[in-house]
Each structure stands twice: as structure tokens, then as C-alpha cells.
Design brief:
Number of strands of chain A: 2
Strand order of the largest sheet of chain A: 1-2
Largest interface: A-B, 45 and 54 residues
Strand content of chain B: 15-25%
Shape of chain A: globular
Structural class of chain B: alpha/beta
Largest sheet of chain A: 2 strands, antiparallel
Largest sheet of chain B: 6 strands, mixed
Helix content of chain A: 55-70%
Radius of gyration of chain A: 24 Å
Radius of gyration of chain B: 24 Å
Distance between the termini of chain A: 41 Å
Strand content of chain A: under 5%
Number of helices of chain A: 10
Oligomer: heterodimer
Chain lengths: 293, 333
């Protein structure tokens, strides 16, 4: 019998305290994730770019002579009512800037941790794989909503300062109060955030497939680009309604006198269906993945 | 690929099972196997880490140590076999058992743009079992224990390699643990850092933690381990207490003399074999066997052999490892 074996007998540990999940754990995990997202300089720069979009458009419209030239929808109405700067900025940001920002953050979410090696430490903390995905998805949804909200708020302030906010003249010519105008603007923000979450979920799934965050980001942005590409081919019109990006601009519906909630609900359901499918795929992948990074 | 049956000596394997009788086992695997494609990375490994031990998990790079450790922690799925950590099956009960396990796996990994303390706070916040009220105090204590208090706010990417390694250890110490799994904790450290880690490992054991420490540096482990397991080519080729495993290696006698031929004859007549002769260095080496060193010396002197030196080499882990695998301590595949 060696001395080592005597030590063994002495050091048998006492009964360990019960390690139960504490209340509020999900909130703490979510806050930790949000803090990481919102203190990362790259993400702040991306948000800064988004914030510049409405300022840039507002100033450009202000300094140029009023004309009926080409431009994004709503542009020629901005001078009359600052609220239209919100709609213009969102319209401008939807095809590229917003997918870029969402794609970068979503693509980075799991792949970035895997690339750094922090994924293996998160999983041995341990945070369950399903829980980690839920935390990442919640944070991603918040970041997406925040991105859209940022554009809207900056556009609203810029529009108010440069052009003033007035009662909203709808597309059909009717006028609604400033209060209702703001409410409709908020509705637009919410609609666009939900639409973009479909893409964000796609990015989260892609992010579970690789350790290369850059590749995941590129692939996520490509999803949006590819969908828009298919949407632009008239021969494929039969599949257009089912495309991820087809109804991203559907928020115009909220600027009509009688809003078709049926359409809005249907389109949002399509976006949420994309999100559900992508999140399921991400879950299936992450919970069975060998973590070798 | 290692395939000779001599690589799994039955006596050593059985002795490692001894803690089974009444003694608690911190980690046990049975027939643990994992393939990557055609390559058998881990091949029927029966690991047995007694509670309270410092278990040196040895083997060259690529011998399957890290793959085994990743399976113990539920990061990789096993193709076959069973794993038990602190009495619970992994990966099934991983969520329940891992809070009691601290781990350093293949080097530290943290977010580069935030400080050491914030990185620890992130891990602590992700732990659903952690008490937020004591979080700050536990983080401070963990940083102090590894000597990083002064660098707590410094960005991780500005840490030196040694500081990164120590932050990894601090992360493993955020909670009271029963088992520490340290995979190559001294990788990339200078001799000073290596000594510090060794000291910490001893302290952990004194605190009552079981430490499973892997390394490809055998001499380093030999200084702290109470038990060792040796991996080669995906198989566990030896396992047991350090003394047991070292006893497997036979002592060798080294004779330095100008009278090589006369000495050779004497050693042969004493029954020492095999004998190797190095004419450049004027040395003979032979396995000592049951004969006492002083008897060999008397015999040689009596036969008129002029002795310049006489030494006995007890094999260390590295010699033993080479004798077991029959290869240099290099990458086997």
C-alpha cells in the first residue's frame, strides 16, 4: 500500500450542497449576453452606421432644392413631414444595411464563441446547449429590434429637427393625428423587426455549422441577398410569396387608411415560420454537435 | 497503430481497479471509444481516477488525451463505452455534475476585448447554479488565488501567455469544486510559470479536490502525481499509482571502464542481460535484475576491471514510456 492510497481514503469529500438552478438565471444569462453584444466595439460601429443613415438622408434632403426626382419611396414627402424620414430611412436600410448588421451579429453568435474557444468553456460551466441557444436567440431578437428602433428614433429626431412633425397624410390621402402617426410608425418598427428576425434566426443556424465567424456572417448576409435575387426574377413569381425577403417592405400597409391586418398577420407569420424553422435546425445542430474547437 | 498485446499489461490494469474496493472514484470510464473517420482516437479506455488523487494523464500529443477529456466533460459524444464522473453518468447527467467540476481544456479561451475579471463574471453569470450575491467576492478570490488581482481589469488580449493560463485556472476555481480537469495546464509556460502551476495543483489536492491533469511533459507530472495513466495511440497502456507504474520499469546498471571486454564477460557471468556496450563513452549498460549493485562492484573489482564509474539508473516515467511503446516520445501518428 503506497502512501498515496492512504491520502485517498482521507480526502473523500463531504456531501456536496445541492446545486439547483437559481431563480432569475435566464435573466442573468440574457443580460450577460446583451452586455457582451452592446460593449463590443464592432457592434457599436455597426449601430453607428445604422444611425447615420437617417441623418444622412435628412441632411441631403434639407440642403438640396425640393424636386420631384427619383429616390426611395416617401423621399419627396420628407420635407413636408419629418415622420416620412422614418419611412424613407427604413426603406433605404432594409435591403442592405439592416441585413448586414443582423447578419454580422447573428453569424458571430455561436461561431464566434467556437472560434475563440469560449464555447467549450460555456458548455462546461455548464450552460445547457438548449439554454445557450435560447439565450443567444433572445439576445439576437433584442439586438435586431434595437437596430430597427435606432433607425426609427434617430430618423424621428432628425426629421423633427429639420422638417417638423405634422399630422400624417396617408398614402390614400386621408390625414391622421400626430399621435396616430407615431403609433403607426411604431407598428412599422415592430413589423420590420419581426421580418428581420427570420434572417437573424437563419444566421444563428449558420453560426452553429462552423467555427469561422466571418464565413457565418457572409453566409447569413448571402441568405438575404439570394432571397432578394430570386424575388427579382419574374419567372419565379410563383415562389415569391414564400421568400424570406418578399414582404420585408410590407410595412407600407401600415400607411393605408384601412390597414389589412390579415395581410400583415400572414406576412409576419411567414417571417416567424422562417424563424421557427431556422431555430429548430439550430437546436438540432447545436445539441448534437461535437465541440472540438 | 499500437496493437501488440504487451501494451496492455494485465497486472497494471488490474491494480488500477483497486480503488473500487471501498474507495470512491472521481472519474471512471469503461470501454470508452471514439473514432474520427477511420482513425481510432480513443480505443477502449478504462480510466479510473480515485477521489483525492492527483492523476497524471500522460501521453504524447495526438495520443487521445484531449479527446478523452472532452468526452468526460460532455463536449464530444463517445462512440462506445460508459463514463461516470463524480458518481453520475456523463453526458446524461452532465448538467448536474459539471457545476462540481472545474476544467481547463486545451488552453485558456476568453473574450479578448474585455478584462480578466469581466471574463470571469461572464462565465459566472452563465452558470445557473451560481449565487449572484457572492459573485464579485468569488471572482476576486479566484483572481487572488492565481495571482492576477492586479491585472483584473486589463484586457485579456494584453495578457501574457502565463497570465492567460492562470486566468483559465481562476475560471475553474469560481466555485468550490470536487474535481479539476486540467488539460495541459503548463503548455507554453516558462519554467517559473510551470513551477507555479505545479504548486497550485498540489494546493488544490490539499484542499481536497481530485485533480486530473494531462500533460505530454512526463517529468513535470512525476513531481506531483499520486497516480498516472499513460496513453499511446489512443489506448491506455498503463494505469496505477505512481509507485506501481514506476516499479514496472527495471533499474539498469551503468559501468564506465577502459576494460570493456573484461567487464562484459563478468557481467555476462553474473547473468545480467541484455548488455549494451558504448565504446566511445567506455560504458556498459545492463538490466540490474535481482543482483545488488555492491555485489556487481565487488565482482568487477575482483576480476581486475578498473572502474571509472558505476551508476544505477532508475527509470523515470519518460524512460518507462519509451520502453512500453518502443518508440521515442514523439507523435505516434
Amino acid at each position: 500500500m503506497s502512501s498515496a492510497e492512504h491520502d485517498v481514503a482521507v480526502d473523500v469529500p463531504q456531501a456536496h450542497p445541492i446545486l439547483a438552478r437559481r431563480r432569475g438565471a435566464l435573466v442573468r444569462q440574457y443580460r450577460s449576453e446583451m452586455r457582451l453584444l452592446l460593449t463590443r466595439r464592432r457592434n457599436l460601429i455597426l449601430l453607428g452606421v445604422l444611425a447615420i443613415v437617417p441623418i444622412f438622408i435628412g441632411v441631403a434632403v434639407k440642403v438640396s432644392s425640393p424636386s420631384e426626382g427619383d429616390g426611395p419611396d416617401f423621399l419627396n414627402r420628407v420635407t413636408g413631414n419629418g415622420l416620412f424620414l422614418v419611412f424613407t430611412a427604413v426603406t433605404v436600410a432594409i435591403p442592405f444595411f439592416l441585413p448586414l448588421v443582423v447578419g454580422v451579429v447573428a453569424g458571430d453568435s455561436i461561431a464566434g464563441e467556437a472560434g475563440l474557444g469560449t464555447l467549450r468553456y460555456l458548455l462546461t460551466v455548464p450552460i445547457g446547449r438548449g439554454r445557450l441557444l435560447a439565450v443567444k436567440a433572445l439576445a439576437l431578437a433584442s439586438f435586431t429590434a434595437l437596430s430597427v428602433l435606432l433607425i426609427a428614433v434617430v430618423a424621428l429626431i432628425t426629421g423633427a429637427l429639420l422638417f417638423g412633425i405634422r399630422a400624417l397624410v396617408l398614402l390614400s390621402g386621408d390625414t391622421v393625428s400626430i399621435g396616430e402617426g407615431l403609433l403607426r410608425t411604431f407598428g412599422i418598427t415592430a413589423y420590420v423587426a419581426v421580418a428581420l428576425f427570420g434572417l437573424a434566426a437563419g444566421g444563428l443556424f449558420v453560426s452553429t455549422l462552423t467555427e469561422n465567424a466571418i464565413a457565418a456572417m457572409a453566409a447569413t448576409v448571402s441568405i438575404a441577398v439570394f432571397s432578394a435575387l430570386l424575388d427579382a426574377v419574374p419567372q419565379l413569381s410563383s415562389i415569391h410569396p414564400a421568400l424570406l425577403t418578399d414582404h420585408w417592405l410590407g410595412f407600407g400597409e401600415l400607411l393605408r387608411t384601412s390597414i389589412s391586418y390579415t395581410d400583415l398577420t400572414r406576412w409576419s407569420a411567414i417571417h416567424l415560420a422562417y424563424a421557427a424553422v431556422f431555430l429548430s435546425l439550430a437546436w438540432a445542430r447545436l445539441t448534437t454537435k461535437d465541440v472540438t474547437s | 497503430m499500437v496493437s501488440t498485446s504487451s501494451l496492455t499489461p494485465a497486472p497494471a490494469a488490474r491494480s488500477a481497479d483497486r480503488p473500487n474496493r471501498g474507495e470512491a472514484v472521481a472519474v471512471r470510464t469503461r470501454g470508452l471509444t471514439r473514432r474520427f473517420g477511420k482513425q481510432l482516437a480513443v480505443d477502449s479506455v478504462d480510466l479510473c481516477v480515485p477521489v483525492g488523487s492527483i492523476y497524471g494523464f500522460l501521453g504524447p500529443n495526438g495520443s487521445g488525451k484531449t479527446t478523452t477529456i472532452r468526452m468526460l466533460l460532455g463536449l464530444l459524444a463517445a462512440d462506445a463505452g460508459e463514463i461516470e464522473v463524480l458518481g453520475q453518468p456523463v453526458p446524461r447527467a452532465a448538467q448536474a455534475v459539471l457545476p462540481r467540476v472545474g476544467a481547463l481544456i486545451e488552453g485558456p479561451a476568453f473574450h479578448p476585448y474585455i478584462g480578466g475579471a469581466r471574463n470571469l463574471r461572464r462565465l459566472d453569470q452563465m452558470d445557473a447554479t451560481a449565487d449572484p450575491a457572492t459573485s464579485a467576492a468569488r471572482i476576486d478570490a479566484a483572481l487572488a488565488r492565481v495571482g492576477l488581482s492586479a491585472a483584473a481589469g486589463k484586457k485579456y488580449r494584453n495578457y501574457s501567455l502565463g497570465m492567460k493560463q492562470r486566468l483559465g485556472l481562476a475560471a475553474a476555481l469560481l466555485q468550490p469544486r470536487e474535481l479539476l480537469v486540467l488539460d495541459e495546464p503548463t503548455n507554453g509556460l516558462d519554467p517559473q510559470g510551470t513551477r507555479e502551476v505545479r504548486k497550485l495543483v498540489r494546493e488544490f489536492a490539499i484542499d481536497g479536490m481530485t485533480v486530473l491533469v494531462s500533460s505530454h511533459l512526463l517529468s513535470e507530472i512525476e513531481q506531483v502525481a499520486t497516480h498516472v495513466g499513460m496513453m499511446a495511440g489512443g489506448r491506455l497502456v498503463r494505469q496505477g499509482t505512481l509507485a506501481e507504474v514506476l516499479a514496472d520499469g527495471a533499474a539498469r546498471i551503468r559501468v564506465t571502464t577502459p576494460d570493456l571486454d573484461a567487464a562484459h564477460v563478468r557481467l555476462q557471468q553474473l547473468g545480467l542481460a541484455p548488455i549494451t556496450v558504448d565504446r566511445d563513452k567506455l560504458t556498459l549498460t545492463a538490466r540490474l535484475g535481482a543482483i545488488a549493485t555492491e555485489d556487481v562492484a565487488r565482482d568487477l573489482v575482483g576480476a581486475g576491471v578498473r572502474l571509472q564509474g558505476l551508476a544505477v539508473d532508475r527509470p523515470d516515467l519518460e524512460d518507462l514510456f519509451v520502453s512500453i511503446t518502443g518508440e521515442g516520445f514523439d507523435v505516434l501518428r
